Amino acid sequence: MPDSPTEPDAPTAPGSPLAPGSPTAPDAPRVRAAIGADDADRCAALLTDAFADDPVTVWLIRDPADRAEVLYGYLHLFVRHGQDVGAVHLAGDATGDHGCAVWMPSDAPDATFLDEELRRVCGRHGPRFAQFGEIMHDVHPKGPAHDYLMILGTGTGHQGRGLGAALLAHRHRELDAAGVPTYVEATTKRSAVGVYARAGYRPHGNPIRFPDDLETYPLWRDPRP
Which residue among 126, 129, 151, 192 is least crowded, i.e. fewest CB within 10 A of its CB? Predict the structure, then answer.
């Protein structure tokens, strides 16, 4: 599932002295690695809240009565997978953790071993998830090697506070130093031309189209020197 940081942060470059998430900003959000079962639970819960009304979530889980339970189970699986083979970060402030990002290297092991758990978690919505996954897989860049931002979200009530920008800046510093590009599919045009454009992402081909007029926006970021 792609990201949805609908977060109108101030238009400052990540890493600048006044940028949200900059170590020198006086009110900089803190970013830390999400480690262990408790953090996996925390990430899945806040991402479920962040994505409750996201266009992709509504497309995947048409019945609102099922949405929270199915989405939590789905996200929890991939947070755990990210902890095992990628990088998962939490961002927060003095009141707690309110943002999460899950990153996967493009050469990460295939997650087909999760198929049985996914069928159990998704239940009667499984065919919709499978269709979504197939379309995303077919258009995903085959190279060069890159880090894939699988999902990034900020809890409701905590958007617009720089948490999404801080999560991006934290990982970009690591990947820029290693010369690794990044890829993401934004679920809204607002985030594609907002927080992602400010962080250096540019369109990577045309929007990805799904049945029933759903679109996501593939974006690529080259590493900065």
Answer: 126
